[in-house]
């Protein structure tokens, strides 16, 4: 394959260069080569949809309607989630949502308040 860095957003290996930017054709994410070195160093950080670093105890807001798997419930846009806990894996936020209960969220669907 190529010697270009994988996409920091979705980890796709199919990135390509366009001028000074690297572009991921799968998720559409664009970044500069200089920032890819920074991303490699901070790969253990969990970031929200806007790129802000999340920490345990933060308050976040849901940015998209999310269907709750195995239920007819929906977490609506703008739902505020307090006191999050960060965990590894695909769903990297553990939280409790009022009216729904304990659940896991993906950091790409929240923004820090």
From TrEMBL:
Residues 46-113 form the Protein YjdM C-terminal domain. InterPro entries: YjdM (IPR004624), YjdM_C (IPR013988), YjdM_N (IPR013987). Signal peptide: none annotated. Gene3D superfamilies: 2.20.25.10, SH3 Domains. SUPFAM superfamilies: Prokaryotic SH3-related domain, Zinc beta-ribbon. Residues 4-32 form the Protein YjdM N-terminal domain. It comes from the Bacteria. Belongs to the YjdM family. NCBIfam families: phnA. PANTHER family: PROTEIN YJDM, PROTEIN YJDM-RELATED. This is Putative alkylphosphonate uptake protein. It comes from Methylophaga lonarensis MPL.
